[in-house]
Amino acid sequence: MRVEVTAKDIAEAQADTRKMPAAYCPIARALNRELGTKPEAELYVYGEHVDIGGDRYALPREARRFVDRFDAEQPVEPIAFEIDTDSPIEVDEDGEPC
Predict the structure, then answer these.
(1) pLDDT digit string, tens, across residues 31-62
(2) Cys-Cys with 59: which of 11, 32, 53, 63 at CB 3.0–4.6 Å?
């Protein structure tokens, strides 16, 4: 699946003061748009992976860097990347990919 994070996604996420950044970050906003889902609709973005309805998919390196920079409140630019939704990953009890 191709994910395109826009400048609007970034600006809206930066302005959002909700307590669930994993559900409202720029990548989550882009995924919700792509999938036609709403925030908190069982879609969460973590540093290494995205959780969509309980299935977890690895984020590519450039997306992980984007998440790290955004979470550290550093400047980020729009980004596009692919998520392999044909290959869910396993994660351990701490949410880390196995």
Answers:
(1) 999 998 877 677 889 888 999 888 999 999 99
(2) 63
- Measured at the alpha carbon of residue 35, what is the angle toward residues 41 and 60, in degrees to the nearest 5? 95
Fill in the DSSP letter of residue 53. T
Element (H, E) at 79: strand 79-82
Which three-class secondary structure state does DSSP give residue 90? coil
27 within 8 A of 81, measured Cβ to Cβ: no
Query: 43 pairs with which residues across the strands?
Result: 52
Burial 21-54 (b: 16+ CB within 10 A, else e): ebbbbbbbbbbbeeeeeebeeebbbbebbbbbee
| Amino acid type, 72 | A
pTM for the model? 0.86
Q: Position of tokens 């949410």?
A: 95
